[in-house]
Design brief:
single chain; about 300 residues; alpha/beta; Rossmann fold; UDP-galactose 4-epimerase, domain 1; 2 domains; seven-stranded parallel β-sheet; 11 strands; about 15% strand; binds NADP nicotinamide-adenine-dinucleotide phosphate; NmrA-like domain-containing protein; NAD(P)-bd_dom_sf; NmrA-like_oxidored; NmrA-like
Length: about 300
């Protein structure tokens, strides 16, 4: 009988790369968890063999429902909500209850966290730190995956300008800041491996990045080279950049509660001076090849 793999934030960026890697495996049945009706309808059309479930991770009863009969949960937390820690704790608690049911098939909790959850100045990192702690202390068989800033974040904006004479990148923070980038494609491959190989990865925490630290200027240059273009970088002023984030994440620039605005405000401030550093060795060991450069990722987008 096939095993039930539950994936949260199934309509999001990470799952758009991960779900296709698991969907055709006959040993798995997928339960794709979303919040909105629009995402539910879209995924039902895209993945007719999967079960698509609407849930609000704020509600413990919804978390219990998504875990019913599950063998594995691949847990991604919704971004930039002050409730992120509560959501994660709700899901861990639901997994513990599921694992204690008579005849339970529950076997693995995979948490897609973030690189350096110990960075308390970044709320979107700090909020995951408590989820990691709760999961570690739950005594469930777990694996924690820590991706960095996704390589793909700026690529859509740039590839859309492939036929423009002078493409421009609007940098949301200082372009001198360096990051290790994680390609969504590489990260999905590593995540699928962890799900498939299961017990080999129990109780491990992996930093998963595709590149050594590189300045944003170098990152944009590498994408520009794949497009055959010189890209001009324009840094967006702080207040405007926070407004852009809020508009993208919450649908409004100004009419956003401070509890939500806190996340983007801290992020832009932090990234103006400090980036996220790691080393691609662990990712390369997992996927058995070199991590993708920004140019590799851009070429994939251009070929689509
Ligand atoms: N962007 C980066 O560079 C980066 C890097 C490392 C880690 N991360 C982390 O990645 C996570 C987000 O993953 P993603 O980028 O794949 O997602 P995403 O594209 O931002 O999509 C957000 C997802 O959250 C779901 N959602 C929102 N509110 C919900 C709720 N109350 N209950 C259940 N689901 C809810 C949405 O469902 P609907 O579509 O139905 O609304 C959607 O699937 C965040 O924790 C973020 O910190 C991001």
């Amino acid at each position: 009988m096939s095993e039930l793999i539950v994936l949260t934030c199934a309509s999001g960026k990470q799952c758009s790369h991960l779900v296709p890697l698991l969907y055709d495996e006959s040993m798995y049945k997928l339960r794709l968890v979303v919040n909105s009706t629009a995402s539910s309808e879209r995924l039902q059309k895209q993945y007719p063999k999967a079960e698509v479930v609407q849930a609000n991770l704020d509600f413990p009863q919804d978390c219990a429902r998504i875990l019913e009969g599950a063998t594995v949960i691949y847990y991604i937390g919704p971004p930039f909500t002050w409730k992120e820690t509560y959501y994660g704790i709700n899901v861990v608690d639901a997994a513990v209850s599921e694992s204690k049911k008579p005849g339970s098939k529950f076997a693995h909790f995979v948490f897609s966290s973030v690189l350096h959850p110990e960075l308390t100045k970044l709320l979107n990192h700090d909020r995951k730190r408590y989820v990691e702690e709760h999961l570690t202390e739950s005594m469930l068989p777990y694996t924690i995956l820590q991706p960095s800033h996704f390589t793909d974040n700026a690529i859509g904006q740039l590839v859309a300008q492939k036929d423009v004479d002078h493409p421009v990148f609007k940098a949301p923070h200082s372009a001198q800041t360096a990051f290790s980038f994680t390609s969504l494609h590489d990260y999905a491959e590593a995540s699928a491996k962890v799900i498939q190989e299961r017990s080999k990865h129990f109780y491990a925490t992996y930093q998963l990045v595709s590149t050594l630290p590189m300045k944003y200027t170098e990152y944009i240059k590498s994408i520009g080279e794949a497009m055959g273009k010189d890209v001009e970088i324009q840094e967006v002023p702080y207040e405007q950049s926070v407004g852009n984030f809020c508009e993208r994440m919450f649908g409004s620039r100004d009419d956003v509660p401070q509890t939500l605005r806190d996340g983007p405000e801290r992020l832009v401030l932090y990234y103006n001076h400090r980036g996220l550093y790691s080393n691609p060795n662990i990712l390369e060991w997992l996927i058995g090849r070199t991590g993708s450069s920004p140019a590799d990722v851009a070429k994939r987008y251009l070929q689509r």
